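Record 1 of the preview.
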Amino acid sequence: MPTSREVHLVARPVGEPEPTDFSLVETSVDEPGPGQVLVRNDWVSVDPYMRGRMNDVKSYVPPFQLNEPMDGGAVGTVVSSGSDDVPVGTSVSHMAGWREYALLPIKAVRTVDTSIAPAQAYLGALGMVGLTAYAGLTEIANLREGDTVFVSGAAGAVGSLAGQIARQLGAKRVVGSAGGPEKKRRLIEEFGFDAAIDYREGELTRRLAEAAPDGVDVYFDNVGSDHLQAALNVMNDFGRVALCGAVASYNATEPVPGPSNLFLAVGKRLNLRGFIVGDHNHLAEEYARRAAGWLAEGKLHTEETVVDGIENSVQAFLDMMRGANTGKMLVRLPQ
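->
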């Protein structure tokens, strides 16, 4: 039986998580029985939503349990199988991340085609991350040809794809916000945004109005807080806001006040709607087909920030929450 290292949450973080809130545990892994597969994880995803799961509160996804392995998106290779349907050597995606090996029922894994894209793409552009961006723009914000789109957290995994997908769906102008001059530059030069804002420079409303002189029709919100306030100021009448995340408040220890200008949503007749990607799985096949085509045609630029080793996965998560990544933050495990 192989041994596997896995990350446990051992304390509920207060504010920003600390390395001492986690523990790296070595455990043995059983051979698969009938209808099971043993997967060696090759790539593990760390994502902002995981911060909420570290709190013991009711939410759309259950909290992590203390002194138990954490979970999340991963892609790996089947190394032992109890099913002819998923033979040894198959590349699969699943939700038993934060560990080196995972013993899973075959119904918990999905075969991925590494002939059309590398395995890790199924944790980013061809996976939940890309579907989040696509669902938010299409079913939530009802993006229309000719719209001006503003994306916050635009250098992150979801945001960088949202801006590019908006362009493919017919947006006239795409504006993004990110932290620092280097990310601002990359939004324009590498991800194809028309304009970019460095939110660290302040005066968000003024900078957004300058970047979107005709106003904003669609706002894809990954940040909340001051970004939502600025967007409300600049939104056009009948604008649509897809509320995807609020990373500015994830480590807050006190309730974060909402925008002081929310009344603008009334006069401008805005539509603000939150969403969870799990409610939009019916779009997965459609999105995967379109995204594979965009990737093949070079119309989607994907960026990854890669950290090696399960022992460094906690630090990768902490760095991601501080905005150290561009594109998808991934942990690569030795093969």
